[in-house]
Amino acid sequence: MAGVIKSWLAMLACAFLTWSNLHAASVDQFYPYGITIDESLDIGDDVASDKYNLDIPIVFYSQRKSEVWISTNGLISFDGPLKEYAGELFPLGREVVAPFYADIDTTSSGDVFYRETKEEAELNQAASDISKVFRPDEAFQPASLLIVTWVNVGAFYQRFTKLNTFQLVIATDAFRSYAFFIYMDNSINWIQADLKPEIAEVSAQAGFDSGAQQYGPIVVPGSGFEEALNWDKESNTGIPGVWMYKIGYLTVIEQPEVNIMTTTPSPALPGPDTNECPQGCSANAVCIEGCCVCKLGYYGNGISCLGDDALWVNGKVYGTVNEEDISNAGMYVYVAVDEARTYTAISKLPPLTGYPLQILVILGELMGWLFAAASTGTSENGFSITGGIMNYSATMDFGSERVRLDVEMSGVTSDGTPQDMQIPPKDMIVRITGTLPVNTVGSQATYKDYVADYTKTQPGEYRSEASRSYFVDNKEYQFDVTEMITFKSAPLPRTSIV
């Protein structure tokens, strides 16, 4: 099934202050960078890198991101390159992390360095920095860092007059991620470039954008205004010029409080134990912020997680089609994960029902949606949403004929055996009731590719309505289809304000 159901959870919690020895960010606060250890962008205006593949994914708005694009213009993006500066205020409608989004031009001055690192000393430095700012009992140990550094970069058409230096660090263990914005002391010397034709007058911006309309952006105070000149002197950590954000797997977006040269640490606020998952997690998952999350190499809703191995999903088919009874027919679905394909077959059908059931293509498409290959962190397949425990109902209306399809799925384990272990084994029960056109008898029905749009009508429920067609002997036949998927929503991660 080509339909895509996107789900976003909110993220970002503010840090509390624990550092009392306050010094403005210097080169010592920067993580190592430079031409000998990093890759670098080509010089010029509006330059973006090729796709940069990450060994350890970054969690961003509850999605794992394994690909990133670096932009000269003070940001990184997860949904493709963002080259041209648009002069728009957040939200940009793109998945971005921006320490300093502005019209940067490195033609005459400046470099943009970037790399993913697993150096032990740098990982330990990040773990120490995080533990000083966030809850001391977080015990977070990153597996990698993405470090992007803009060094002595100037504004478009201003060249050498004023230069800025700043750094983005994202620490991740594939389940939790933290973002650092680091501005070197006295290094924010400009916040707006000379205007290009048809570009609005907007000062530099910093923050996060999910790219989804239902979740507004998070921006650093002063973003888009003259106050951006103070980012190297202000902070939400107690260290001027150093801003930290916890991202991913949180349910409430919290703005960090700006503290200008604050010398008294703020106490930690008590919160719930966010590592409890009372519903229980799969053996191939971990509990993060009260939510089960499948480990790398597995997919699912955290309560049920499958690997990348091929598997069988079995079921029984019952019902009445064209006045022919179907009883105890077998349904067999082979899921070839590496091919991103599913193969569906039904056995022991009455002689006159086999040809008409070709039209019931939505049954195979349901299996395709459940086990589809999700596109680089921007979407989830059906198993990741439902854990394979769900109910599906659909009605196909052909005008003079109408058929209803009901599927009750009880879940599968990694070896394809059912969770309920009933005899005969069945992962699902399929009921088909109604009449189907008989124009396929002795012929083959074919379909064109299509996209199914699903709407989340309430937690644990998706609906779709569409008009489609199929072809028999090069003749087109129309039908309408309505679909509904219901399941028990997995518990959302809890969060405490710290």
From TrEMBL:
Domain Nidogen G2 beta-barrel stretches: 309-498
Signal peptide positions (record): 1-24
Record InterPro entries: Epithelial_Barrier/Signaling (IPR051495), G2_nidogen/fibulin_G2F (IPR006605), GFP (IPR009017), NIDO_dom (IPR003886)
Domain of life: Eukaryota
Pfam families: G2F (PF07474), NIDO (PF06119)
The UniProt record lists the keyword Secreted: yes
Subcellular compartments: Secreted, Extracellular space, Extracellular matrix
Gene3D superfamilies in alphabetical order: Green fluorescent protein
Domain NIDO stretches: 99-250
Species name: Bugula neritina
Keyword Hydrolase set for record: no
Regions that span the bilayer: none
One GO BP: cell-matrix adhesion
Record's protein name: Ndg
Keywords per UniProt: Calcium, Extracellular matrix, Glycoprotein, Secreted, Signal
